[in-house]
Amino acid sequence: MKKIWFILMGICLFCSCQDDTGFGVSESADGKTDILLQLADAPVIETRADGDQTDDRDNRVENVVIFVFDAAGNLINTPTSQAAEKTDNSSSGNPCYKIREYLPSNKHSIYAVCNYDKSAELIEAVKGATNALDGLKAHVLTINSLAETFKGAYVMEGYTETVSATVTVPVYRVVSKQEFTITFDPEDDTDQFSISNVAILNVPKKSKLIKDEYNHQTNSLDNWTGDAVYSTDGEAMAGNYIDRTVVEVETVSTNQYKLTLNLFENRRGGKSPWDIERELGIADRSEEEKEKIRQLYKKDLAEGKGEFNGETGFPYASCLVIEGVYQTSKVSYHAMYYVYLGHNNFGDFNVVRNHQYNYSVTIKTCDRADTRVWADGIGDVEFFASDAPLSSYFCVREALLYSPGTWEVYVENPDETPWLEISESPSYKPHKLGETLDDNCAQYRLTGGQGSHYIYLHADEYVPPITDPSQNSNYGERTATICYKRQNSNEVKKFTVTQKPAQLVRITAWDFNLAKKVEHSFFVEAVPGNEYLTWGFEKHWSMTMDNLISTGLYDGLSTSRKEYVMALWGDKRSGTYNDLLEFPAPLALEGAQEAAYRGPGADMTLVPLDIALGATLFKNRDRNGNGLIDYNEILWYLPAAEQLEGIYEAITDGTVELELNGETFWSSTPSVSDKGGITPGRAYYVKMSNGKRGIGLRDQQFRVLCCRDAEGWMGPEDGNGSGQVNNNTEWENKEENMPK
């Protein structure tokens, strides 16, 4: 890897990209055609070799729609969404999928659309267009949040006009993949940098489904007017972008972080290295010097400032911003580092579909001579935190505090807002009677010394005291105030924390155990997460899981707690019943299988946080301070299928206000399990576009909602039993497909 940096530089940047896929087709005796979807490794454009960049999710095909057109662009087949069968029919050794489709004799072109969750709307739009092919080409994908660009499988598209006995159809991912490694490696070892947040600017909301051209023009220096976000109306074009989205980074080590994003294409153009060198007056420098200098001016180039003053710049170019506090031995700065995306680190602003971009960002200094660095000296205490409203469950939010001297942070009027506490621990740790109070315990006041400190805001659940859904509108957001200041100073600064209330839903459901209809009331969270997660319990069968197919349709709390027990202890009558846990199971479940995530010698990382069950259980609070989420502490849970249907009805009739954008959500209700462990098994989901229930494979990825029973037992104050919700690094995602 080339090391591109020098004494004035704040960040070093390397980037790379990848692409491509293909189909093969052969005729069969029954008049249908076997269409082979063969997915190839995506080629990489990069300044260093990183090996294979793809994973199973990059190449997954869950469903396919085939459109067949005649020479005039008329649709001549009946397109439907169908499952693709994984096969071994691949000469390249890469994943290969097969579908069967009838191809009329007057076929002229074949288009394939894979993994599109709105395929029904697409099919109707194509059928209703004056010219069907033009209708397909005009179709635009639209998102409301960054997370919607990848929902567990990439939307892909491709076409061919070669319709002989053997047909190859190139298929492209509609989005790009952006991978970042952020490293703090200061020139002065005494420097420190603490990240307050990382955000992506100018996220495209729109993309054409079908690529304009198939020759992969990857490095055009012109603004690409064919992109769906482009408009000659400046105000309209601004509306085609999400201005700023805060993203989470994974901490690899003390000074290194990783981040993966997916973006629609955003080809904003660029400037050649020769033009940049001429305008900067460095054309006569050595190549090594030019390479070092050019990248320092990319932000000025993007904005048409400084050495490029008077130029139009490259508005709406996508950019990653790393914000935090940079401390030197003499002065501290509120600093922002701007990483403009593109094919190089100095003059290209093109984000192209079906490419993977790898960025290695090294923060070395806080020198404002580098135009990509914004820095402002800090002379007083500062507090950096997101002001987005918290959801209704037990929440924790990270904040970064910097002070040049001793400091004090406290909750204003805690008697009026006892629901908000602070600590220096991301996990909620109650202060138990008789124990020493330390900074990791939840409390109302903290103090500390000079430098940067991470403070965690812990909010209690916000469940209004209402008994009927018609009362939901009686409760709005609640607020509390965080005060921060230098110790012994009278100047107090304030930060407002906002939390939204849960909303009550009531359903009538059939209870199989009681053999009668019952009324069930529960609360639903106000701010659903944007993550797309697998259901979990892949390839796991048990009698308890089978029983929940019928008994787990409406009571998500009971279902979630039973699945929690299965995950930790397994079923009681198993020959391999888990006796490694030192504490007893709270339920003696009947069945014949071992625990879903345990085996001989397994450690205590039992329920992964990146599956639906783990993500919802982690929204509960460790009330007894044993570092675990116990059985009796599970109040917020994954709703059952009929509860999700009830939420849809409540949104439709106006008793609940919730932005779900027609997405698909997992329920806690399982469907069939594969006792042989060949397929991952299935579970129920509900589409919030129509409130309909469906069955998905457990390794598919959908969104997750969190609910809480209105009459839910709060549990004893000290809790009992033990358990754990944590991440399992050995979790595997197996590929399988089913029709939608």
Domains, number: 4
Strand arrangement, major sheet: 6-9-11-12-3-4-8-7
Strand content: 25-35%
Biggest sheet character: 8 strands, antiparallel
Supply the helix-strand structural class.
mainly beta
Provide mean pLDDT, rounded: 83
Report helical residue fraction: 10-25%
> With helices defined by DSSP (H or I, 4 residues minimum), what is the helix count?
11
Shape descriptor reads flat
End-to-end distance: 44 Å
What's the gyration radius in Å? 28 Å
Poorly predicted runs are 1-12, 14-30, 40-54, 214-218, 572-580, 591-605, 714-740
Say how many strands there are.
39
Task: Furnish the topology, listing elements before pairings.
Layout: E1 11-12, E2 16-18, E3 21-27, E4 32-38, E5 44-46, H1 56-59, E6 64-69, E7 85-87, E8 96-102, E9 109-114, H2 119-128, H3 132-138, E10 140-142, E11 156-160, E12 170-173, E13 175-184, E14 192-204, E15 206-208, H4 234-238, E16 241-247, E17 250-253, E18 256-264, E19 266-270, H5 273-280, H6 287-294, H7 298-303, E20 319-327, E21 332-340, E22 348-351, E23 356-363, E24 373-377, E25 382-384, E26 395-403, E27 407-411, E28 420-423, E29 445-448, E30 451-459, E31 478-486, E32 493-499, E33 503-511, E34 516-524, H8 543-551, H9 556-569, H10 612-617, E35 636-637, H11 641-653, E36 664-670, E37 682-687, E38 692-697, E39 707-709
Parallel strand pairs: 13-23
Antiparallel strand pairs: 1-23, 2-5, 3-4, 3-12, 4-8, 6-9, 7-8, 9-11, 10-15, 11-12, 13-18, 14-16, 14-20, 17-18, 19-22, 20-21, 21-24, 25-26, 26-30, 27-29, 27-31, 28-30, 31-32, 33-34, 34-39, 35-39, 36-37, 37-38
